[in-house]
C-alpha cells in the first residue's frame, strides 16, 4: 500500500529541499557567529573591568602608602561611577580587608588565596562569593621599595555578562526567525506566481483536452521550463490531431476504394450476366420476328395484321434491349484515334434527326480529342435521346466549350431529376422513365464509355430548367491552350 507523501506538493518540496537547507546553514553560521560574538563581548566586559582596576590602581597604591584613608575611600568609590562594578575590595599584605564596596564581601580565606596567587602577577577568575557568581580581577599593590603591600579586587556579577549574552542571543535568534519567515514568504509567493499559477493553467488545459476540447491549446507562458512543457503538450495535441485527420482520410479513402471495388465487381457480374442473357435471347427473338414477318405476308385480316405488327414491334424493342445488354457487358475494344469534335457531335445530332428528334446545335470551338468514335457517338446518342424523351416539345440543346478540357453539354427543358434520383441514375437498371419505357442501362453505358476515355459524366441543373448532362474529356496536347467559349 502506498501512503501519500508530503513531497507530493511542490511548494513543500521547495521549502524542505531548498529553504530548509538554507536556513540550517544560516542557523549554523548564526551559532558560530554567536559563539564568537559572545566570546568577544565577554572578553570586552572583562577588559572593561580590568581597565577600571588599572585606572584606580595608582591612586589606591599611593593612598595606601600614605595611609590616606579618605583618598583611599574616594578612589575605591569612584569605580562605581565608571562602569557596572559589583564590588571593589582592598586588602593589605596580611589579607585584612581595608576597604570594601559591594553587596557581599570576599571571605578571609578567599583573600588569602588571592594573595598567594598575585605573587605571579595580576590575574582574573570566575568564583562564588557568599553564594554569588562573580567575575573577579586581582591586582597586587606595591610600596615605594617594590614590595607587595596589598591586594585590589574588582568584581562584576556573572549574571551581568550572561544577561548581555542572553539578550544578544534573543535578538539574534529573533532576527533569524524574522528572516526565516521572510524567506519562506518570498519562496511561497514566488512559487505561487512563477510556478503554481502557470502549472495550474497547464493542468486546466489538460483537463479541457481530456473533456473533449481537442482544439484547445495551452498558453506558452511562464518560466522557460513550463513554457517548454506547454509547447510540448501543444505539439503532442497537434500531432494527435494530424494523425486523426490522416486516419480519417485513409479510412474514407479505404471506404471509397471498397465501394468502387464493390461497384466494379457488381458491374462485372452484371456485365457477364447481361452478355449471357442477351446471347441466349438474341436467336429466339430473331426467329419470332422472322415467323411474324412471314405470317404477315399471308394475312389479309386487318386485325390479324395489326397484332402481328405489334408482335414485331415488341420483338424489335426486346432486340434493342438485348443490344444494350451486349454493349454494357462486352469488354472494351475501343480503337483510340484523333477525332474532330465538331464532326463527332454533328454526326451524332444527324443520326437522331433522322429518327425524328429535334435538337438545337450550338457550335463551339474547334478541338481534337483522342477516342473511339463509335463509343463516343453511342454515349452522345444515349444522352440526347434521353433528353428528347424527357422533353418531347423541346427545346433540347447540344453545345461544347474548351476550358483546359472538352466540356460537351446536353440541356433540356424537362422536369429535371430530383436530388435522390441524381445519386442513382448512373447505376445499372435504374431509370426515371415509366415502367416499360426504358431498360436503365443507357446512363450506365455512358459512364463506362467515359471511364474508358479517362473522362467523366456529370449531372447538374440546366439553365433551360431541366437537366444538364456534361461529358468531360481530355483534349489532345496539340489543342491551343486557354479557355475558348
Describe this structure in words.
With 485 residues, the protein is α+β, with helices and mostly antiparallel strands. The chain is 59% helix and 16% strand. Among the domains are: 6-173, PAS domain (Beta-Lactamase), CATH 3.30.450; 334-474, Histidine kinase-like ATPase, C-terminal domain (Heat Shock Protein 90, 2-Layer Sandwich). The strands form three sheets. Strands 2-1-5-4-3 form a five-stranded antiparallel sheet, with helices on both faces. β11 and β12 (467-474) form a beta hairpin. The longest helix has 75 residues, at 224-298. The two termini are 83 Å apart.
CATH class of the domain at 6-173: Alpha Beta
Distance between the termini: 83 Å
Global geometry: rod-shaped
The percentage of residues in β strands lies in 15-25%
The strand count comes to: 12
Name the helicity range.
55-70%
Secondary structure elements and their pairing?
Layout: H1 10-66, H2 69-82, E1 87-92, E2 97-102, H3 108-117, E3 123-129, E4 132-142, E5 148-157, H4 158-210, H5 224-298, H6 302-329, E6 337-340, H7 341-354, E7 360-362, E8 368-371, H8 373-390, E9 396-402, E10 405-412, H9 419-422, H10 442-452, E11 456-461, E12 467-474
In short:
This protein has about 475 residues and is an alpha+beta fold. About 60% of the residues lie in helices and about 15% in strands.
